[in-house]
Design a protein that fits this description.
Keywords: Fatty acid biosynthesis, Fatty acid metabolism, Lipid biosynthesis, Lipid metabolism, NAD, Oxidoreductase
InterPro entries: Enoyl-ACP_Rdtase_NADH, NAD(P)-bd_dom_sf, SDR_fam
Number of domains: 1
CATH superfamily: NAD(P)-binding Rossmann-like Domain
Organism: SAR86 cluster bacterium
Structural class: alpha/beta
CATH topology: Rossmann fold
Number of helices: 9
Largest sheet: 7 strands, parallel
Radius of gyration: 17 Å
CATH class: Alpha Beta
Mean pLDDT: 97
Family: Belongs to the short-chain dehydrogenases/reductases (SDR) family. FabI subfamily.
Enzyme class: oxidoreductase
Shape: globular
Strand content: 15-25%
Bound molecules: nicotinamide-adenine-dinucleotide, ligand 0WE
Amino acid sequence: MVNGKKILIVGLANKYSIAAAIAASLHEHGAIVGYSYQNERFEKFINEFSSNNGGGLTFKCDLSSDKEIKGLVNFFAEEWGEIDGIVHSVGFAPSDQIAGNIEDCITREGFAITHDISSYSFAGLIKEAVPFFSENASALTLTYVGSQEATPNYNVMGMAKASLEASVRYFSATLGSKGIRVNSISAGPIKTLAASGIKGFKSMLNKHGSETPLRRNITAKEVGDTATFLLSDMSSGITGQTIYVDGGYNIQAMKFD
Ligand code: NAD
Ligand code: 0WE
């Protein structure tokens, strides 16, 4: 499906990261995978993970810096010649922004940081990569239904995800003529390390699992395999979309017994 495609993965932090499952699926299906990581703290893990998954290149990049985004894209463009795909699996809000009622915790600075890292970073990355994308390249980001419907505590992350999903539509509209596709996967809750730091995440996970049509939580592997599909030519007719990998949760207005 993605045999020989050169795909950059941004947002791998540890073995629980959704990006880890995406990388594993891409590698399993023959892709050449490269990684960027946020800072030195992740270096050892990334190098280890990479050598167990095809031994692709790794590069440090803090997405809050335009200079580092440029450096990242230029590094892979030079090493690979062209880029066939990018996976953006990044989200961040200061922890005080995603705990409690929005009117009690939202701040101008919290809003700015959350939108910068969770939404602009995707736009900045794609913008820099455009000159190096191959024909039929595919870009992908990760989102959550809290962008569309209010979710307790998700708060400003929901606003940033709404912005991210709109960004996917705008980039897909103008990059389509170059053959470049841009989509997002809206995943149901998954117990990643970031998520397990969130108060009440376990009960949210259980509630989601019992209320969703499939009556179980989705796995990171299911997201990984959908990502492989969206990065492959099998999905050549799909762009600008938010693809839900959530066991069907989003199609219900009320829980069925
Ligand atoms: P994760 O913590 O494993 O991944 C988040 C990544 O963002 C980390 O690799 C971190 O290093 C990176 N990051 C944060 N700030 C950065 C910066 N300034 N520069 C570079 N990298 C930075 O958690 P995850 O759950 O795998 O999240 C990945 C994506 O999936 C996020 O967009 C998240 O919103 C989305 N998502 C998660 C869930 C869930 O339940 N876990 C559900 C739906 C969508
Ligand atoms: O997008 C996310 C979470 C992303 C996230 C996680 C953290 C934890 C550590 C962003 N910023 C931070 N900041 C930190 O300091 N998800 C979709 C998972 C998630 O997070 C929630 C959820 C769900 C689901 C937060 C509140 C309510 C629901």
